[in-house]
Amino acid sequence: MERITAKYYIETPNELEKAAHVLAGEQSSGTFVKIPGETEELKQRFAARVENITLLESVKEPSIPSNKVVATSYHRANIEISWSIENFGYNLPLLLSTLQGNLYELSQFTGLKLMDIDLPPSYEEHFNGPRFGIAGSRKSMDVYDRPMIGTIIKPSIGMSPEETAVLVKKLAIAGVDFIKDDELQSSAANSKFEDRVDAIMKVINDQADKNGKKVMYAFNISDELDNMLRRYEYVLKAGGTCAMISVNSVGLTGVKKICDQGKLVIHGHRNGWGMLNRHPLLGIEFTAYQKLWRLAGVDQLHVNGIQNKFWESDDSVVRSIEACLKPLFRGETLLPVISSGQWGGQAFETYSRTKTTDLLYMAGGGIMAHPDGPAGGVMALQQAWEGAVNGLTLEEARHQYAEFSKSVQKFGVKA
Amino acid sequence: MERITAKYYIETPNELEKAAHVLAGEQSSGTFVKIPGETEELKQRFAARVENITLLESVKEPSIPSNKVVATSYHRANIEISWSIENFGYNLPLLLSTLQGNLYELSQFTGLKLMDIDLPPSYEEHFNGPRFGIAGSRKSMDVYDRPMIGTIIKPSIGMSPEETAVLVKKLAIAGVDFIKDDELQSSAANSKFEDRVDAIMKVINDQADKNGKKVMYAFNISDELDNMLRRYEYVLKAGGTCAMISVNSVGLTGVKKICDQGKLVIHGHRNGWGMLNRHPLLGIEFTAYQKLWRLAGVDQLHVNGIQNKFWESDDSVVRSIEACLKPLFRGETLLPVISSGQWGGQAFETYSRTKTTDLLYMAGGGIMAHPDGPAGGVMALQQAWEGAVNGLTLEEARHQYAEFSKSVQKFGVKA
Question: Does the keyword Membrane apply (chains A, B) (predicted)?
Answer without folding.
Answer: no
